[in-house]
Amino acid sequence: MTSIPHFDSFGDRLDWWLKHRGKTQKELAVAVGIGQPALNELIKGRSAEPRAGAFIKICRELGLRPEYLLWGEGAPEATSFAQLSGLEAQLVMLFRGLASDAQRDALLIDMNDAHNNSKTVKKATAADPFNAVKPSAHPPSKVPAAAKRSTKKTSVPHSG
Known about the structure:
This protein is mainly α. Helices cover 52% and strands 0% of the residues. Helix 2 crosses helix 3. The longest helix is centred in the C-terminal third of the chain and has 20 residues. The chain is elongated and about 70 Å long.
């Protein structure tokens, strides 16, 4: 996975992502419906910002979030429901269905706690069924009564 560098400008972000996605200026310009010279002006910083319609098309073509491409804020890549597994999509729907920010915050806190606790609790495996803890051996004087009964020899009359 390629590390995404920090960029100081919209043009720098656009230029890097254009190359990262393997597109030429001409290909993107045609897909977006603007001229290649206009796209070059955006990349070089000679044109401050694109028109709204062209900007949204650029974001869609490159799979980027508008906030990131324009200002460098947040995660770069957009995620659609089509890219999520069924469980991930259900989690997003549950989260979005919560009535308040307080409920969303509480859910995130609970999930974070559960995640952190799952990292610290070692689970038993077939290779280590006791979690690296040896089963306690009962000293001879402390053998449970049930164990004493099961080891008691009984004599069975032998018919011969």
